[in-house]
C-alpha cells in the first residue's frame, strides 16, 4: 500500500547527542534500560514497513540539559541542524520539532528565531520539566509568549521530574512519564498559560498521560477564587483545545477516555520509535485498526488531523 501515516512522535539520536548526554542518562529512561540503536536508515526502514509517509522528529528524554548553559545551547543547535539536514536529505519523509535549550530563557528565544525563521521547523519540541521546573513557571513566560506570537505548534515529551522518583526498579517511562505529562498540563493550565497563549497549538504525548482520568478532578479547582482567573472558560474547555498522540496508548481504555476529553480531530498518530521498538509500532497500528472506530476516524488519526495541524508537511 502507499505510505499514508504521519507519525508526530518519532525520535532521533544524533551521534553527538548520545555521546554528550551519555548512556548513563538515556538508558534508565527506557523500559529496556538501554539506549536505543538508531540511524536514519533504521527510521526509514521502519516507516516503509509500516506505511508511514512522514515522521516528525524530536529529541526524547532526558533532553539536552548539560551542566554548562553554553554547552546546552550548542548541543541544542547541533541537534536541530542535524534534524533539518535529515529533512533536507529525505524530502517528504521527515518533519521537525526543534528543541530549545531550556531552562535558559534568552538562549531559547534565540533558538526559536533560528528554528522557525532559518530552519523553517514545523514546531517546537519540549520536555515536560526542566531542572525541577514545569512549563507554567513565570520564568518561562517569555518563551511561551514568543511562541504564541508566532502561532507555533508545541509538542511536549515527558521526562522524569527532578522532584520525584519512580518505585525502585521501575523505569521512568512506566510511571513518571505519564505523571510528568500531567504535571506539565496542570502547570500550564493553572498558571493561566493556556488561557493567555491562545495561538499556540499544544500536543501532549501518550494520550495526555493521566489527564483524561484526572480531568474532572482538576476541574474541581476552577471554583476556587485563586484558580478561577487562570481558567475563566473552565478546565474542561481548556483541555478540549489540546492535541494528543496515540504513542503507547492505542488501546480501547486510553482512547475511550481521550475521546471523552477532546474532539476526534485532536488525536494524532504517534509511534515513539525508537524508544518504543518496532514491535510496539506494529502493535499500535494493529490495535487502532481493531478498535472499530467510526468511518473516517482512523484515517483522520493516522493522517488528516496531522496535516490540518501541520500543513507544511504536505508541501515538503
Features:
316 residues; alpha/beta; 13 helices
Order of helices and strands: EHHHEHEHEHEHHEHHEHEHH
β-sheet strand percentage: 5-15%
Q: Which geometry do the CA atoms define?
A: globular
Q: Give the radius of gyration.
A: 18 Å
**Largest sheet: number of strands, sense, barrel closure:** 8 strands, parallel
The number of helical elements comes to 13
What is the average per-residue confidence, as pLDDT, rounded to a whole number?
A: 94
Please tally the β strands and state the result: 8
Output the structural class: alpha/beta
Query: Can you give the helix content as a percent range?
Result: 40-55%
State the end-to-end distance.
21 Å
Low-confidence residue ranges: none
> Which strand order spans the largest sheet, edge to edge or round the barrel?
1-2-3-4-5-6-7-8
Secondary-structure topology with pairs:
Elements: E1 5-11, H1 15-21, H2 23-26, H3 40-49, E2 52-58, H4 69-89, E3 94-98, H5 105-118, E4 123-127, H6 141-149, E5 153-157, H7 176-190, H8 193-196, E6 201-204, H9 211-219, H10 235-240, E7 243-245, H11 252-261, E8 267-268, H12 278-289, H13 297-309
Amino acid at each position: 500500500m502507499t505510505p499514508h501515516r504521519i507519525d508526530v512522535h518519532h525520535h532521533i539520536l544524533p551521534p553527538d547527542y548520545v555521546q554528550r548526554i551519555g548512556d548513563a542518562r538515556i538508558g534508565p529512561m527506557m523500559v529496556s534500560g538501554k539506549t536505543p540503536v538508531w540511524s536514519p536508515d533504521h527510521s526509514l526502514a521502519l516507516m516503509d514497513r509500516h506505511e508511514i509517509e512522514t515522521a516528525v522528529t524530536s529529541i526524547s528524554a532526558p533532553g539536552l540539559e548539560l551542566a554548562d548553559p553554553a554547552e546546552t545551547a550548542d548541543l541544542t543547535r547541533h541537534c536541530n541542524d542535524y534534524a533539518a539536514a535529515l529533512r533536507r536529505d529525505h524530502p517528504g519523509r521527515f518533519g521537525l520539532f526543534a528543541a530549545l535549550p531550556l531552562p535558559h530563557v534568552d538562549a531559547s528565544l534565540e533558538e526559536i528565531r533560528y528554528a522557525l525563521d532559518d530552519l523553517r521547523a514545523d514546531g517546537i519540541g519540549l520536555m515536560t520539566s526542566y531542572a525541577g521546573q514545569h512549563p507554567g513557571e513565570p520564568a518561562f513566560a517569555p518563551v511561551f509568549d514568543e511562541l504564541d506570537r508566532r502561532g507555533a505548534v508545541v509538542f511536549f515529551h515527558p521526562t522524569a521530574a527532578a522532584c520525584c522518583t519512580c518505585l525502585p526498579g521501575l523505569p521512568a517511562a512506566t510511571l513518571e512519564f505519564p505523571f510528568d505529562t500531567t504535571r506539565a498540563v496542570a502547570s500550564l493550565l493553572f498558571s493561566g498559560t493556556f488561557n493567555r497563549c491562545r495561538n499556540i497549538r499544544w500536543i501532549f504525548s501518550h494520550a495526555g498521560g493521566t489527564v483524561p482520568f484526572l480531568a474532572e478532578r482538576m476541574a474541581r479547582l476552577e471554583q476556587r477564587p485563586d484558580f478561577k482567573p487562570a481558567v475563566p472558560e473552565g478546565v474542561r474547555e481548556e483541555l478540549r483545545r489540546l492535541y494528543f498522540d496515540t504513542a503507547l496508548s492505542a488501546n480501547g481504555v486510553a482512547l475511550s477516555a481521550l475521546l471523552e476529553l477532546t474532539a476526534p480531530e485532536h488525536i494524532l498518530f504517534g509511534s515513539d520509535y525508537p524508544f518504543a521498538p518496532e514491535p510496539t509500532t506494529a502493535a499500535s497500528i494493529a490495535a487502532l485498526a481493531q478498535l472499530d472506530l467510526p468511518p473516517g476516524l482512523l484515517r483522520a488519526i493516522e493522517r488528516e488531523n496531522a496535516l490540518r495541524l501541520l500543513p507544511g508537511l504536505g508541501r515538503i
